[in-house]
Amino acid sequence: CTGNGICKCRVCECFPNFTGSACDCSLDTFPCMAANGQVCNGRGTCECGTCNCTDPKFQGPTCEMCQTCLGVCAEHKDCVQCRAFDKGEKKETCSQECMHFNMTRVESRDKLPQPVQPDPLSHCKEKDVDDCWFYFTYSVNSNGEANVHVVE
């Protein structure tokens, strides 16, 4: 019974919060909780402690990543700009508002992470305050940590 129940007459009797023939399905929804406090970001169902995303545009451990949605790049543009280049609209408030992601600098665009990795990844091309393009990627790993790679 995978340590989550007691076997009686070849049938598992599961402890509270577990179900399934081998008590291998957790009913705990905490691992499915998105940053907004909703289970699976309101875009999926929590099955055995894992999100099953029902909206095909959304993916990731809590159905929060959307590759085709507008917004991931624009949402993080000002924070990436102030952290990487010390300029932009959030320059003055950068240390308070923009520390929610790990940042790695890379030499060129071909050194940015590619979509072959397991974590959902957004490639971004945004204009800075000087009307110049800058490039970065935004991804969230299975631990919910946001990672940004930015071209120097």
TrEMBL record:
Which residue ranges does the record assign to the Integrin beta subunit tail domain? 73-152
Which InterPro entries does the record cross-reference, listed alphabetically?
Answer: EGF_extracell, Integrin_bsu, Integrin_bsu_tail, Integrin_bsu_tail_dom_sf, Integrin_I-EGF_CS
Record keywords, A-Z: Disulfide bond, EGF-like domain, Glycoprotein, Membrane, Repeat, Signal, Transmembrane, Transmembrane helix
GO biological process terms, semicolon-separated: cell adhesion mediated by integrin; cell migration; cell-cell adhesion; integrin-mediated signaling pathway
SUPFAM superfamilies in UniProt: EGF/Laminin, Integrin beta tail domain
GO cellular component annotations of the record: cell surface; focal adhesion; integrin complex; synapse
One Pfam family matching this protein: Integrin_B_tail
Named from the GO MF annotations, one term is: protein kinase binding
The record's SMART domains line, in alphabetical order, gives: Integrin_B_tail
In Swiss-Prot or TrEMBL terms, this protein is called: ITB1 protein
Q: Please tell me the species this chain comes from.
A: Oceanodroma tethys
